[in-house]
Give the backbone structure.
Amino acid sequence: VKDQHSEAGMTVVSKNDALRMSFTGRLRSETLEGLFVDPKWGKGHFEGDFSVNLPKKSKTLATAQGNLKGTNVVIPLGSGDDVSIEQVLLEANGSTVQANASTLTWRDFTWNPLTASINFEHDTLRIKVDRAELCGIHSPGVVDIAGKEFDLDVTLQGTNLDIATSYSCLSQGR
């Protein structure tokens, strides 16, 4: 893809044994808007050199390599909600991807900042959130995604917080 705003190469190769995806270059929202029929997907700016290899056979390790920076990224969810990420940096070397997001917003909740490691373990995608601040409350956790199923384990931790302010933030003033 090359135009006045962007210059990027993207591949998606699906074979019997694996799905391979790669991105190299710079892709801006002005270009994305022309690539997708649904305008929800035409958001954000991406820059980097990043590849993922997802084997289809179980017990085989998926791998990722490179760096990818995203700015003002909007991810539409199947529920009709969106996840918005102000800025994210993905760094991968092998079976782990480190993700650092400045701000992640879902509905009226904002995590600022968010740091996670993403591991491809056989048939499961594991997202281990090491740092996530929601309403001043530290909320580390783990999300395991296997096919259509997922497990979520989050811990809320806070010290010397004003309970009224935290409650108002978490309940959105209700």
Residues 17 and 56 are 5 Å apart (CA to CA). The chain is about 10% helix and 60% strand. The first strand starts at residue 7 and ends at 14.
